[in-house]
Design a protein that fits this description.
The complex is a heterodimer of chains A (about 950) and B (about 70). Chain A has about 950 residues and is of the alpha/beta class. Helix content of chain A is about 30%, strand content about 15%. In chain A, the strands form ten sheets. Chain A has a seven-stranded mixed sheet with strand order 13-12-27-26-25-14-15. A six-stranded mixed β-barrel of chain A has the order 31-35-32-34-33-36. By secondary structure, chain B is mainly alpha-helical. Chain B is built from four helices and no strands. Classes of the chains: A alpha/beta (about 950), B mainly alpha (about 70). The interface between A and B is medium-sized, with 31 and 20 residues.
Chain lengths: ~950, ~70
C-alpha cells in the first residue's frame, strides 16, 4: 500500500446491539447506541475537525474544535462528547461553526511555531490539517505575546523527543499513557497558560520518569511535540506494510512504515486483533538490530572451532555442510544428526527445519526452544484438555471478573497484553498474584492485587493443591459443569486426593510459606468471584514439577467451571513470538505437526506419502539428551536455526562440553552468537522484515509476516534451509512460503483451513481452522473438550531435588525485564541498553545486610554448578532467602549457575529454583574472564583465504 | 548416555506419577518412557544396574523388558 496515516474515528468504538439512526449533514447514518456524533460522522465518511480527540482514548471535550449544531438543541455541543440519539439531525459545517472554530484555531496558532516547512511532522500534522479545514488565514492576536516557544526540547529518551514549544496541551499523550498503557507516567502540570505536559515528578525528564516508552503518547500526539527521532532523521514514510512483531508471544501487528528500503518507524496497527493498536518499547522502537554492524551477512566455515572463520560463497557453504552431514550420517547413522528449530522464525521455516531433520537427516532428533520454556504447557494441557495450547483469545480478559496470575510478570514480559489486563482491573476485576516476587502488578497506579501469595520457589503444586482443597472441602466446585464436561470418576478420585487434610492450606503452609488464611481467601475468590481466568508464565513451567503445575491449573479451572466461554480459561503467556507456532509445526522429537505422536502409523503414513520417505517411528532426542549423547560420542552434528543454546540453556559448562564434542555444529543466525563459538558453519539469517511467512501467537492466532525489504544476507531463512536440503540431495522446490503453508494445511488437521488467501481475507486466524471452524476458534472447548471429557489428573507435590543448605542457603530464580528480550541478541543491539546495560542480582535487604552488600556492589553468585559475578540491587521486591536475576547478557551468563534439574515430564529446565550463595566480590570470575577471551577469539575471521 | 541422569529421570517420572496408585503409576511410567525416550536412552537404562531406581520405576522397566 502507499502511505496513508491510519484512519482515526475520533472516539473509541462502542459495543451495542441497539442501532441508532440519525442524520448528519443530510446523510442517514446508523451506528451502535452510545457512539459519539464525531465517530458517527467519521464512520459515514464525514470529517469534523478536532484536536483533543483520537479513537484510542475516551472523549475529553477540551479543544472546542469539534463543535456541531444539532437541530432542536441550544448552543454548539462538542461532537466527541455527545452521544447519538435516534432521529437526531446534525450539521457539522455551518458558517457559525466555521467562525467559532477559526477563532479557537487562532488562539492555538498564536502560541505555536510557524515552522511547517522545517517541522519534523513532515506535513503529517493534525494542527496543520485543522488550520486548513477551518480556513485559517490570519491570527489577529499576532505572535509577540507570551508564548512557550522558547522551551527546551527533552531528548532524553533514545527513541523520541518531546518538544514542548509545539505542544497544544490537548492531553492526548497523558490520556494515552493512562488509558491505553496504564502507566500514568504523564500529567499536565501547572494551570492555565502555565499548563505543560510533565513526565514524572518535577525535575524528571522522559528517561528518568516512570515512562515505559511504549509509544502510545507519540502515536496519540497530533503535532510534532512527541516525535520519533527516526522520523526527524529520515523523513516522512512513503509506504506502509502490515506485519507481525518478532518479539514476544503477544504477536502485535505493526505497520512497517518505509521510505524506499529504509524502515522509518513501526507503528502499531489499529486493526491488529492481538494488540488492538498498542505496542511496547521493544516492538515499537527496538528494531535497530536488523541493520546493526554486528550482523553477519556472508556464510562462513571452519574445520575446527580453534580456527578463524573463513568467508565463503553460499554455494560453497551449502556444499561443505551437506558433504559433512552426509559423511557423518554414513559413518554414524542417522541418529547422530539433529536440529533445533527457532521460535523466532516463521511457521514455514520451522516446518522446513523439522522436515529436513526427519526426512533428510533421517532421525527425529529435532527440538525447539519450547523445551526450555513451555514444553510443560504442551504436555499438561494436552493431557487434561486434549490440546497443547491456551484456551482463550486476548480479548477474553475484558470479560474476566477474577484474574489469577501465577508465575508470570506480564508488565515486563507481555506488556501489551498487560495493558489490557490492567484496563480490566481498573474496571473492577479482582486480581490474585501467586509469585515469589512482588511483581509490579501487585501494586501499581490504580491496580492492587486482592491477594498476593508470595510462595517459596518450587512449591507451585502445593499452593494449587491447597487451593483445590479449599474449593472441594468448602463445596465451591461446579459439579454441574464437571458432570457434563469431565470424567466424573476421575474427578472424584482427584477430589478425594485434594480433600485429604495433608493438602490443607494450614498443613502446607510449612512448605509454601503462604499464610493459610490468605490462600483460603484467594481460593474462595477464584471459585466464587464470577468469570475466573488464569494467566501463567515460566514461573509455572520452569520447575521440576512444571507439567504437574500446568495440570493443577487445568484441574482448578475445570473444578470451577471456568472453561469454554469468554472471560475464563487457562492462558499460557508464551515467551517468544512464534513459540506456539514452532510447537504446532512438529518441532518436538516425539510428535509431528499438530501434536500427533510419531509412533502413530496412520499419521506417519500421511507424511511418508507426502514426503516420499519412510520416517522413524521412535521419538528422537531432546536438546539436553542431544548434549548427553554428544558427550558419549553417539550424537555428532547439529543444525541450530535462530537459537543461542549456550546462553539460554541451563548449566552452560555442560552445554559447552556437549557442543565441543560434536563434529559439526551449524549455526544459522543473524549474529555470531555465543553458541557460534562452538560452530563450524555459520549461515547468515534474515530478519522478520526481510521475509514472508506467518507467526502464531499465544492465543493460537496465525498472522502474516510480510517482507518489507530484501534480505541483507541474500536469502530468507526458508530459502537457506531449502538450499541446504537440496545440497543434501532432497528435491524440494518451494517458490514461496505460501506453498509451505499449503503443505502444512494438507498434513495438519488443525491448520486444514489455513492459507495465505484466507489469512489475507480474515486478517488473522486462530487455530483450529477446519471444516468445523472455518473462520477459526477464538475460544476453545466451548461445547466440550477436544479430548472428549476433561481429565482431572492427581498432582502431588514432590519437592525438587535442588536443596538449600549451609553452603548454598539462598534460592535463585531467573526472569526477564521489559526492555530486554531473552538472551538479548536483539535488544542488546538497540538503544534499549539505556534501561538495562547489565544483569543485576536482586537481593532482599536482610540478606544483603548479613553479607555486607550494598546496591551497586559486585557480588559472586555461586551454585553447585558454577559461579559468576554481577552487581547487586538491594530490594524488597524479593522475599528474604530468594534472589533474582535476568539472563540477558553474555558477560554475566546467568546460566553458568543454573542446574541440570528439569521437569519430570518434559525436561524443561528448573530455571526458577537454584540453591546459591551470594558473597561480595571485587570483579568478574576467572571463568568470566577466560570466557570473554575465548568468545573474542572464536569470532576471528581470516582476512586471507585459507590455503 | 549418562546413566545417573537417566536413573534420575526415571525416578522423577515415577515419583510424580506415584499419587495415581501403584499399578497405574507403573503403567504410566512405562508408557511415558515408551512415548518420550529415544531408543538409545531406553536401551541404556534397560541395560543398566537398576538398583538406584525406585520400585515403581524398576517395575516400569520390567514392563518394558517384556514388551
Amino acid at each position: 500500500m502507499g502511505y496513508e496515516p491510519q484512519a482515526d474515528f475520533g472516539t473509541p468504538p462502542v459495543q451495542s446491539d441497539q442501532p441508532v439512526t440519525l442524520a448528519i449533514d443530510g446523510r442517514a447514518v446508523t451506528v451502535p447506541a452510545g457512539t459519539s456524533v464525531m465517530r458517527a460522522a467519521a464512520e459515514s465518511g464525514g470529517s469534523i475537525p478536532s484536536l483533543c480527540a483520537t479513537d484510542s482514548v475516551k472523549a475529553y471535550g477540551s479543544c472546542r474544535m469539534c463543535l456541531v449544531e444539532i437541530e432542536g438543541r441550544k448552543g454548539t455541543p462538542a461532537s466527541c462528547t455527545t452521544p447519538v440519539e435516534p432521529g437526531m439531525v446534525v450539521h457539522t459545517q455551518t458558517s457559525r461553526l466555521q467562525r467559532l472554530r477559526r477563532g479557537v484555531m487562532e488562539l492555538y496558532i498564536s502560541d505555536h511555531p510557524l515552522d511547517c516547512l522545517t517541522c519534523s511532522a513532515n506535513n503529517v500534522c493534525e494542527l496543520q490539517d485543522t488550520a486548513a479545514e477551518v480556513g485559517l488565514r490570519d491570527v489577529r492576536y499576532g505572535y509577540a505575546g507570551a508564548n512557550h516557544l522558547g522551551l527546551p526540547t527533552d531528548s532524553s529518551n533514545p527513541y523520541f523527543d518531546f518538544d514542548p514549544c509545539k505542544c497544544i496541551a490537548c492531553s492526548r499523550c497523558v490520556r494515552a499513557c493512562d488509558e491505553v498503557q496504564g502507566t500514568f507516567a504523564l500529567t499536565i502540570a501547572g494551570r492555565g497558560f502555565a499548563s505543560t505536559v510533565s513526565a514524572g515528578q518535577a525535575g524528571d525528564d522522559f528517561l528518568s520518569s516512570e515512562c515505559v516508552s511504549c509509544g502510545a503518547c507519540v502515536q496519540a500526539c497530533p503535532t510534532a511535540t512527541l516525535q520519533e527521532k527516526a522520523v526527524k532523521e529520515i523523513g516522512k514514510p512513503e509506504r506502509a506494510v502490515v506485519t507481525t512483531c518478532a518479539y514476544c508471544g503477544v504477536g502485535c501487528t505493526f505497520r512497517a512504515e518505509m521510505r524506499g528500503e529504509q524502515l522509518v518507524r513501526m507503528v502499531p496497527w489499529k486493526d491488529g486483533k492481538a494488540n488492538r493498536g498498542h505496542s511496547c518499547v521493544k516492538g515499537r522502537f527496538a528494531w535497530g538490530y536488523a541493520n546493526h554492524r554486528d550482523r553477519v551477512l556472508e556464510p562462513m566455515i571452519r574445520d575446527s572451532i580453534e580456527d578463524p572463520w573463513r568467508v565463503v560463497s553460499w554455494d560453497e557453504a551449502f556444499a561443505y555442510t551437506a558433504e559433512r552431514l552426509n559423511a557423518i550420517k554414513a559413518r554414524h547413522g542417522a541418529r547422530a544428526l539433529g536440529g533445533i528449530t527457532s521460535s523466532r522464525c516463521t511457521n514455514e521455516e520451522t516446518f522446513l527445519v523439522q522436515k529436513l531433520v526427519r526426512a533428510g537427516f533421517g532421525s527425529n532428533n529435532v527440538d525447539t526452544c519450547a523445551r526450555v520454556c513451555h514444553s510443560p504447557t504442551g504436555y499438561g494441557l494436552k493431557t487434561t484438555f486434549g490440546t497443547s495450547a491456551g484456551t482463550q483469545d486476548f480479548d477474553s480478559v475484558m470479560q474476566a471478573d477474577v484474574i489469577l496470575v501465577i508465575g508470570a510478570n506480564p508488565t515486563d514480559a507481555h506488556p501489551v497484553f498487560a495493558s489490557r489486563m490492567k484496563r480490566r482491573l481498573r474496571e473492577g476485576a479482582k486480581l490474585i498474584v501467586i509469585d515469589p516476587r512482588r511483581i509490579d502488578l501487585v501494586r501499581m497506579p490504580h491496580v492492587e492485587a486482592a491477594h498476593h501469595l508470595p510462595l517459596q520457589p518450587g512449591t507451585n503444586v502445593a499452593v494449587l493443591t491447597a487451593m483445590a482443597h479449599v474449593i472441594v472441602t468448602e463445596s465451591l466446585a461446579d459439579e454441574a459443569f464437571i458432570r457434563e464436561r469431565c470424567d466424573w470418576d476421575e474427578y472424584q478420585d482427584w477430589a478425594r486426593f485434594v480433600a485429604d487434610e495433608r493438602h490443607s492450606p494450614e498443613v502446607l503452609e510449612a512448605v509454601t510459606r503462604v499464610p493459610a488464611a490468605d490462600l483460603r481467601a484467594a481460593a474462595r475468590l477464584y471459585a466464587t468471584g464470577g468469570n475466573g481466568a488464569i494467566y501463567y508464565g515460566l514461573g509455572v513451567t520452569e520447575h521440576s514439577q512444571g507439567s504437574s503445575t500446568v495440570m493443577a491449573i487445568a484441574n482448578l479451572a475445570m473444578a470451577t467451571g471456568n472453561i469454554g466461554r469468554p472471560g475464563v480459561g487457562v492462558n499460557p503467556l508464551r515467551g517468544q513470538n512464534n513459540v506456539q507456532g514452532s510447537c504446532d509445526m512438529g518441532s518436538f522429537p516425539h510428535e509431528l505437526a499438530g501434536y500427533r505422536h510419531i509412533s502413530d502409523s496412520a499419521t506417519r503414513g500421511l507424511f511418508e506419502q507426502d514426503w516420499g520417505v519412510a520416517l522413524n517411528p521412535e521419538p528422537g532426542l531432546r536438546i539436553p539428551n542431544m548434549l548427553d549423547a554428544a558427550l558419549d560420542g553417539s550424537f555428532r552434528a547439529l543444525y541450530i536455526q535462530g537459537e543461542d543454546i549456550l546462553q539460554s540453556d541451563p548449566n552452560t559448562h555442560h552445554v559447552a562440553a556437549g557442543l565441543k564434542a560434536m563434529e559439526l555444529v551449524i549455526v544459522h543466525d543473524l549474529f555470531l552468537n555465543e553458541t557460534a563459538g562452538y560452530a563450524h558453519v555459520f549461515l547468515p539469517g534474515s530478519t522478520f522484515l526481510e521475509k514472508d511467512g506467518t507467526f502464531t501467537n499465544a492465543e493460537r492466532r496465525i498472522q502474516r509476516v510480510r517482507k518489507v525489504m530484501e534480505p541483507a544476507n541474500g536469502l530468507a531463512d526458508w530459502e537457506v534451509t531449502q538450499q541446504l536440503a537440496q545440497a543434501m540431495g532432497l528435491n524440494w522446490d518451494y517458490r514461496h512460503p505460501a506453498e509451505i503453508m499449503a503443505e502444512i494445511a494438507r498434513l495438519t488437521p488443525s491448520f486444514a483451513g489455513v492459507s495465505y488467501d484466507h489469512l489475507e481475507e480474515a486478517g488473522s486466524l486462530q487455530w483450529p481452522v477446519n471444516a468445523a471452524a472455518p473462520d477459526g476458534s477464538p475460544v476453545m472447548h466451548v461445547d466440550g473438550f477436544v479430548r472428549g471429557k476433561g481429565r482431572f489428573v492427581v498432582t502431588d507435590y514432590v519437592p525438587t531435588d535442588e536443596k538449600t543448605g549451609p553452603r548454598y542457603p539462598l534460592l535463585l530464580t531467573t526472569g526477564r525485564i521489559l526492555s530486554q528480550y531473552n538472551v538479548g541478541a536483539q535488544t542488546r543491539r538497540t538503544a534499549n541498553t539505556v534501561w538495562h546495560e547489565e544483569d543485576l542480582l536482586e537481593i532482599h535487604p536482610a540478606d544483603a545486610e548479613n553479607r555486607g552488600i550494598k546496591s551497586g556492589d559486585w557480588v559472586r553468585l555461586a551454585s553447585r554448578t558454577g559461579e559468576t559475578t554481577l552487581r547487586a540491587d538491594v530490594t524488597d521486591r524479593v522475599a528474604p532467602g530468594v534472589v533474582y536475576t535476568t539472563f540477558h547478557h553474555p558477560a554475566t551468563q546467568a546460566n553458568v549457575v543454573t542446574t541440570d534439574y528439569s521437569d519430570w515430564a518434559t525436561n524443561c529446565p528448573e530455571y526458577k529454583v537454584t540453591a546459591v550463595q551470594v558473597m561480595p566480590s571485587n570483579g568478574p570470575t576467572d571463568w568470566q574472564e577466560s570466557y570473554a577471551s575465548w568468545a573474542e577469539r572464536s569470532r576471528r575471521v581470516a582476512r586471507e583465504p585459507a590455503e | 548416555m549418562d546413566l545417573a541422569r537417566l536413573h534420575h529421570m526415571a525416578n522423577q517420572i515415577a515419583r510424580n506419577l506415584a499419587a495415581q496408585g501403584e499399578e497405574a503409576a507403573i503403567a504410566a511410567t512405562a508408557q511415558h518412557i515408551r512415548d518420550f525416550w529415544e531408543p538409545r536412552m531406553k536401551a541404556a537404562i534397560l541395560g543398566s544396574d537398576r538398583s538406584p531406581l525406585d520400585p515403581i520405576a524398576r517395575a516400569a522397566l520390567e514392563r518394558l523388558d517384556d514388551a
